[in-house]
Amino acid sequence: MRPEIPPLRPRTAEIVQVARNLLEELGWEALTMRLLAERVGMRAPSLYNHAANKDELRTFILTESFLAMGDACWQAVATERSPASLARAYREQARTFPHHYRLATSGPLDREALPEGLEEWAGTPFRLVTDSPTTAQALFASFHGLAILEVDGRFPEGTDIDRLWERTAELYSA
To answer: Cα(12)–Cα(74) distance, rounded to whole angstroms?
Structure first.
């Protein structure tokens, strides 16, 4: 069951949405509290009434990113419970929101700051299409490797990336 996340105050939710847009436009390192305040039409000190600091803002964004990825993955396995359907949904989310994807899957993750049960819920579709928790983690790691290499443009020219995704899903279907 999707975790119950307390809603943000309306103005805070608006600020987080602007921050998400800036993240996708510029990347995490370029997103500053000063720029965010400017984009939402307030002075930077007033922004801290909505997010204590950039770490808290990051947690708000990560929560939304985990929910979006989780929703996409759950929808995929509801339609067809297979690694192939999960691969398509996972890849689409990573390609559509590459900076959100990087933020959610790179570097340290402060699990204690995330809403309880969110990470487990978002990862459960991997368990639903595999035969064990270890295989589910291996599948996630495989999809993550493909996704990060693809969004960072790291595959050699001429690589059939579609076929790599298909083949990876096939390996976990056996």
So the answer is: 27
Q: What is the CATH number of the domain that holds 16?
A: 1.10.357.10
Indicate the length of the chain as a whole number: 174
The answer to whether position 137 is within a domain reads yes
- pTM for the model stands at 0.94
Given the structure tokens 């490797």, which residue do they identify?
145
Collapsed DSSP state (helix, strand, coil) of residue 25: helix
Domain range for residue 68? Answer: 10-173
Contact predicate 84/173, CB 8 Å: yes
Count other Cβ atoms within 10 Å, centred on residue 166: 15
pLDDT tens, residue by residue, 89-102: 999 999 999 999 99
- Tokens standing for residue 164: 């790599």
Q: One-letter amino acid identity for 90?
A: Y
Q: How many domains would you assign to the chain?
A: 1
